[in-house]
Amino acid sequence: MPRTLNIAIEGCCHGMLDNIYSQLLTRQKQTNKKIDLLIICGDFQAIRNVTDLGCMSCPDKYKQIGGFYRYYTGERVAPVPTIFVGGNHEAGNHSRELYYGGWVAPNIYFMGNSGVLKFGGLRIGGISGIFKDFDYAKGYYERPPFRGHSRSSMHHARSYEAFKMLQIRQPLDIVVSHDWPQNIERYGDTDGLLKKKPFFEKEVERGELGSPLNALLLERLRPKWWFSAHLHVRFTASFGPQESIFTQGWKGIPPYEQDLSNVPVSGGLDANQTDGMSGTAQIGNVDEIVMSSLSDEEADLAEPELEIKRPRMELNLPPPKHDIAPALIDITDQEPTSETRECTGAVTSDLKQEEHSIQTDSTNIEPATTNPVSYSTPRVSGRATNFLALDKCLPKRQFLEVIEIKVPDSAADGELKLEYDPEWLAILRLCNPYLPLDESPFVPPAQAQACEANQLPLFSDEQVDRELEWVNKNVFRNGRVYVPSNFVPVAPVPPPGTPDSVSFGLARNDGNRGRGRGRGQRGGYGHNQRNDAPWTGPRPYFINANPQTDDFCKMVGIIDPLTQLLR
Question: 76, 338, 495, 510: which has the highest count of C-beta atoms within 10 A?
Fold first, then answer.
């Protein structure tokens, strides 16, 4: 018999793990159906200590330690296996320790800057961060102590990660991102979206809502599901097998068609300090950094952004859809049921039944199998991509959904544990020597010839097969390889009992309260007044040596120049 997996999808986490897990446990009790996996679409906020909090990219007034550190120490344990990608409000130093992915706590796994994993017969890809055209082409130039713009640029997706993802040949069942694929709103209820978020109208009209990087990946990879968050609204769309969302290819993404000499340079070093890799890095003038022009609601956790005019892109797009019936925009064929998922400042077990609710969807899909397929494209013939974006964890918001996926016997004979993906490990071996470590634009290696109509830089089938043969011989010689439970804490945490609201004096009083919420409330999510108790003990390091990364690199036969450089 096929195996049925119950997969929970969460939008933006914003550190609200207690509440999210409370909702899942309550749902399990109400439905008598076990949740097999939780996928979180970014803004996870794995904050362990004062250094992590200082490196987190968000306005200072929202900086509070939160409750993640209790999961890090083992005081609390995630009741559901959890995987997540990074958003634009993370502790970049912590994420950088696990560039290739790894456990941030027992039973909670970070997918890295990009990555592919298997779970219960499903093949899941992920890419972290958001798109910013002025950082997209750069390498990883950020260095401790991560000052100025580099604190946020660590969360800006890079072309190198897109290059790696483009090498995927075998079909994916799920792709997870924080940012939406650009123009995906045109394949759903565009009018309904703009009624909820009218300030998106100009970006929709210009074809600039979302990430062109993710649009390129959607065009190439065509998974069965694509999950996102970031824009704080529930939205569904169906991207048909014959649809084309981004036809300009690799070089159609800014800034490849703009003058890079005008791109601002800002690094993580002092103005007169040389980083040894890219000459002298300078911190941008703080006066040149402004808040983006969002509504008060959307500016809750908006990062400072550099004002740079994005070049106009000529896109071959369908017109925005209008007045679409709900049946046409639902991502399943079944009538969804309504259940309230309220998120409060404390863990609750008694949930109200209200009209404002998440939708529980059920559908049967055919996951990607291990049968040989053409390396020329990872697409499954005739298969559409179902897109789902979810909100952040707030009362009466649609931030959490559960889907049922039936996995055929041929792909469901293993344990329900995370597994490494052979093809992805082969891709890492191919791409790792070209990991860019300065601000120079990443240029695909000559070995990756531009091919196909859209001129994507792809390694040849023979090159991928050669590395895949090495991986199968040296890593997968005994069959599937599960991700080892090798988490160990490597950074200090606050003393037990430290309240979630502690900011260690980092939450500046800038007078910006945001929709009338009290300054002491954590992003408006809870009701704890800010606590400025100081950090006690030595200041933690910016980057800690993580044995998970070392073990992974040894297994795959690669080096981690990024982490070694930062150490």
Answer: 76
